[in-house]
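Trying the structure run again after the queue cleared.
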Amino acid sequence: MAVVLNKEQIKEIIPHRDPFLLIDEINELEVGQKVKATKYIKEDDFWFKGHFPEYPVTPGVLMVEMLAQAGAVALLSMPENKGKIGLFGGINNCKFRQQVVPGDTLELEVEIIKIRGPLGVGKGIATVNGKKAVSCEITFAIK
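Done. Tokens:
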């Protein structure tokens, strides 16, 4: 998949920084509408030290955060949102379908389905090798 934005370019749009910038690249971007991003799950990712040392698995809440960061790129790329931040307004219908482990490539896709004033709603799906790992609906509050 082609890289549209690398990590440095992502940092120009969203305020997240290491160790909490949880997306590696943007592969497709329709400003204010849709985004596809990638997170390469590495053995040395910070959460594996404690979750779990003998059985490393990516926490579900961090995968939701990865989807939210990808969706924030789509919303904060809009000219009227330049320089703002996206906060969680809600998470609905979240389902975890498979474990994500070191060596996996997590493909993140968020479609913005509603924008009303400073609020936006996105449908997110994260997959590994084409199999759904997480799905949810995220409400963004733009500040």
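The beta strands are 25-30, 34-40, 86-96, 105-116, 119-128, 131-142. Worth checking whether this holds up in the mutant runs.
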